[in-house]
């Protein structure tokens, strides 16, 4: 069953956010990058403008600029209201209020929408989704996956997580997943421990690392995965 626009809750993040969420260095940004579940983030637009090779994948890319823009307008008040209702679950050191955060996110998504038509033509935005990707083994230096795996642990089971991580590790020499907490409770995902136990048995090297980004309280760690064929 295909994705419908009503299932989409667009929320975009910037290159500066990505740098912090994924602990990206200047050297990382010289690599070829896959941004999986990129959504309406401006990361691709900003990174491409400075010469980074980025391909973003997300089922939202099947929709038009106008459809995505309308969906942003429809869902924005609900997101701000939810942030207001759950203020204590978030860290407010970079933003003064939910509305301030919202303004920043809207500017980020506007940058995405401006870049989207050209990016589609250049095959920088692809309508693809985990756990199966259409890329060659080792096609990318680095795969990033933000606010999908672990975040949606209630909807996506352990098997999905294992398959998705192995697929990301097939197409990239290194994988970084952020955050490792769930969207709802803010607790460490229940899938993390079995993943940390099972994948090393198959030769994967996994580390959990603290990053300089924390908006969701306790959500300041990423999972780094290096597949067995790239020691």
Automatic annotation (TrEMBL):
SUPFAM superfamilies: S-adenosyl-L-methionine-dependent methyltransferases (SSF53335). The keyword Methyltransferase applies. One of its GO terms (biological process) is methylation. The keyword Transferase applies. Keywords: Methyltransferase, Transferase. GO terms for molecular function: methyltransferase activity. This is SAM-dependent methyltransferase. It comes from Phormidium yuhuli AB48. The lineage of its organism: Bacteria, Bacillati, Cyanobacteriota, Cyanophyceae, Oscillatoriophycideae.
């Amino acid at each position: 069953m295909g994705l419908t626009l009503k299932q989409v809750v667009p929320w975009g993040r910037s290159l500066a956010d990505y740098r912090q969420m994924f602990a990206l260095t200047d050297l990382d940004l010289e690599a070829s990058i896959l941004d999986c579940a990129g959504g309406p983030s401006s990361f691709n637009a900003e990174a491409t403008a400075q010469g980074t090779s980025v391909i973003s994948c997300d089922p939202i890319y099947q929709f038009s600029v106008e459809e995505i823009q309308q969906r942003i307008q429809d869902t924005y008040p609900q997101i701000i209201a939810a942030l207001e209702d759950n203020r204590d679950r978030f860290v407010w050191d970079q933003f003064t209020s939910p509305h301030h955060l919202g303004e920043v996110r809207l500017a980020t998504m506007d940058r995405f929408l401006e870049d989207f038509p050209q990016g589609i033509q250049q095959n920088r935005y692809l309508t693809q989704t985990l756990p199966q990707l259409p890329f060659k083994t080792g096609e990318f230096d680095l795969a990033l996956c933000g606010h999908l795996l672990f975040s949606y642990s209630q909807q996506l089971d352990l098997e999905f997580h294992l398959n998705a991580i192995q697929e990301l590790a097939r197409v990239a020499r290194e994988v970084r997943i952020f955050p490792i907490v769930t969207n709802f409770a803010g607790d460490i995902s229940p899938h993390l421990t079995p993943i940390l136990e099972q994948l090393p048995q198959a030769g994967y090297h996994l580390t959990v690392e603290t990053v300089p980004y924390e908006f969701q309280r306790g959500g300041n760690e990423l999972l780094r995965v290096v597949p067995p064929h790239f020691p």
